[in-house]
């Protein structure tokens, strides 16, 4: 297992972790959550050996192989396929040793190396690497292209494929979906579902976390709390804890009431049965999410647009693309106030091209783009983050847009996007990607657009900001078109789905699960393969051994489940007692008998918890052995 014992970690004068203890057992899939700057990336750096603990220990089995995604890639002439194959370090070492042994004519050594190459399934390594690349959106022609040919985002995909190629025991993934489209996210989700090792995952994609993780480690106040279950389960458990804090209660109830009103309003207007039901379910789930995020620092709304002409924008027989390459043909669409459209489609099919044409950033090759006289477009794309003035502050960016606005009104507005106090006056240059994305969104909102075009708006945004954006978009009165790999965002703000494929744009009669099935039918080869193991045993033998292992281990698994359940019951009772002991009236003279009873039970629970935890840990160690 991976074990932190009394761990303390500082970065400069700042304490990130103070006396943290945590056990992650082999095979667990753990989502690492927490506000930006709480220490998620630093914990990964510690596991990679790039940082050392100030106090305590961080331990894992010495034989474990750790895989992580490289953050930078040099512009080499090495092919994409070879770059990915380099992820299997043992394979590369065996190939190098075999070349030397053959040159020296050492037959005995050659035989031993061939045995080991057989064990690591070396003869199918190129096929595995090619399937990884295909799953992440690379074409057959891309496999032989040099790494230097690819843009930064595609190089990050290459690095992800390289990490997945490694036959690892511990896989560290920090925001792996940031540079992926929805198709690649769905593929990666499947692949991780079959990963046999231990996974630590940092992600701000709720749907991805829900599908992949079985535990959540939440970083807060220099500590790490481990929750059992997926991300939705964590939100519910944390919401219950926060509900005990009276200071947050009224804010939680206001958030829930807001969502319930929106669900009721949408239910009355819903006309597309399949997509409507999917969205209603998503919104109903969000009523449970609100309390868990009641302490979010982000709060903003879209003010009503000045004018709402109908239609806002039309494309008539539009042909779009690049010189010598047509991407879209005969596109006929009209955008009207209240439209909420999510764009789906394979990578390279033309989703971003369509958004650029709608935004007026790309001129159609043929056909007409017909905007209304009062059209006011708000367009968010990743390249706009780089168009911010690096030497200017968030306050100055908005003052240039609206010189008549008072400084206080602008500062109040920026506070809802997390730019409070000195941050509103700081230059943009050192801002993180998430902070720049928040500022671009703030600029869009300030301008009161009546047509909002969002191309991957959640890249770099944390979970709290994503929730604030979803809530704001639900109340937005103009027309919305969004491209996103964040399924939670698509489900909670879009009424319609359009599919961009084969050079055309058409309504998609289904929900996101139907889209997953559409992708599988369209390209069966992109279904996720099993991660590479240390060998490839006979399938029949493998099934027989697995059945025997399940039979043998069932008593231990049952004991672990029973002890975990008992531990959770005792911990919940202890939390309720501690919450009561935190209330001032318990120390009144009239409450003395209740106080004595609670203190006595608290002592019993501490002893019971320790005993159950020790028994549980012993059972887990036996199971792992």
Automatic annotation (TrEMBL):
SUPFAM superfamilies associated with the record: P-loop containing nucleoside triphosphate hydrolases (SSF52540)
Q: Origin, by domain of life?
A: Bacteria
Tagged with keyword Disulfide bond: no
Lineage of this protein's species? Bacteria, Pseudomonadati, Pseudomonadota, Gammaproteobacteria, Chromatiales
What's the short name of a Pfam family annotated to this entry? Answer: ABC_tran_Xtn
Stretches assigned to the ABC transporter domain: 2-246, 313-527
Q: Annotated region Disordered: where?
A: 524-543
Q: Which InterPro entries match?
A: AAA+_ATPase, ABC_tran_Xtn, ABC_transporter-like_ATP-bd, ABC_transporter-like_CS, ABCF, P-loop_NTPase, Val-tRNA_synth_C_sf
Alphabetical UniProt keywords: ATP-binding, Coiled coil, Nucleotide-binding, Repeat
What name goes with this protein?
A: Probable ATP-binding protein YheS
Keyword presence, Nucleotide-binding:
yes
GO MF, one example = ATP hydrolysis activity
Q: Which residues form a coiled coil?
A: 546-615
Q: Which family does it belong to?
A: Belongs to the ABC transporter superfamily. ABCF family. YheS subfamily.
Q: Which organism is it from?
A: Thioalkalivibrio denitrificans
